User: What shape does this take?
Amino acid sequence: MNITGIITTLNEERNITECVRSLQRVCDEVIVTDSYSKDKTVELAKAAGAKVYLHEYIGDGLQKNLALPYATNNWVISIDADERLSDELVEVLQQTDLERTPYDGFAVRRRNYIGQRWVKSCRWYPDYLVRIFRKDKLQFAELKQHAYVPTTNTCKLKADLIHYRYKNYDELFAKPERNYSTRGAKILFLKGKKASALSPFFHGFSAFFVNYFLRGGLLGGLDGYVLSKAIAHNSFLKYAKLREFHKDPSVRDAEDWTSVW
Assistant: This one.
């Protein structure tokens, strides 16, 4: 099919080969935009048949859009290295006439996993995202965090994109603690936001309440509870770190503010 698969990477040697092969089931071209990985990501991507371009990381949506000019096809599928096309998605795409479709893009349901467990609570499913689109009509919003493709003239496909989001509970808590909360705190700080001593507690409790009681975590068993706790933990840390940046210059000055993203 005349579709270009696009992947953005940084140190993804564990995932990149299977990700490229997944896209090759429907794509005649796969492009990897790598942010100068220190592992074997680039080598493995090339060995799997992908074209690789290097560029420093400039933020989520901006980075994904960098690959669009390199794509020789007008239709693209953009996924992350820890995502795979499901059999049903491959079948749907093979049956879709992209040259005659009236739509500029398609949203797919993202099926999120912790380990090998499909987690549906806390709005993790169906997690609809536009990932298949015409590059001459749509692209990712130029946001540095949580970028998305606008849903203008798009259609929802009844097919899943598999997302191996976290390997285990350790990674579920470690990533927010190590990366997401600090990044979020920096973004808020640069926007001039402030936090009181009570802000971390308020945001942490609110995040847990919303995800556990209102978004179905309660019905998700242990995974639902742990996921709600992890989301709350990230929210608590984000505002605690924001407070720390304002109150302690030594902590603020020790951060690298040139690499927020």
The longest strand covers residues 154-166. Residues 221-247 form the longest helix (27 residues).
